[in-house]
Structure prediction request, 256 residues.
Amino acid sequence: MEPLAQLANVAVDQIWHGFAIFLRVATVVALLPAFGEQSVPVRIKLGVAFAFTAIVAPAVVLPEIDRTMSGIVLYSLTEIVSGLLIGIGIRLFVMALQTAGAIAAQSTSLSQLLGGASVEPLAAIGYVLMIGGMALAVISGLHVKAAQMLILTYDILPFGLFAAGSDVADWGTRRVSYVFGLAFTLAAPFVLVSILYNLMLGVINKAMPQLMVAFVGAPLITAGGLFILCISAPVLLSVWLAALDGFLFSPFGNGQ
Prediction:
């Protein structure tokens, strides 16, 4: 009976260890691109969270877990907050694609086409870029990179401790500013074409006031926007994926 008792103690310790890891992992999975989308059923997300926990738990060494009620509440709060920080940091990259798509759509008169094709209303270009980005990220091994990042975060955000508020504020400010800069960079070709288009319409309208240049130019800017999307999407998504990989490699680094 003694070996069975020892085995039971080991099993209980492993269950508590897995529960502690699951708190952070499940929070990140809920915000993870592709795996945490609103269109993904909750049961699938729960299964993905358990799978990530099974991968991360053996690679993480935690201090002795306080199994009292106060300890469980403290661990739940700290790990959920840590998971939210990490998940929001990743989720901002999805928002970068959506913002870039909105800017591009407004610049090329494609802001309404296919706008309701997703759970959250998006412009056509934003929807295409988001779906393409999610597919590219998953094909490139998002699950492996996310698991590696989760293991790394336990060195940066220790288990059972809250991050300093000033550090979180500075980090959040840098992340948001970087993501908005990334979004504008991705939409820059469409904005440039829009500027050239409006300058051209202004010149034509000045030379031929009687011509309805808006009706003549509307199909041109729409076709031009679709053409630019076709030729620039691979480059834009590769830039976005490189930025996402940089964050997954160093989520709390001093750089971008």
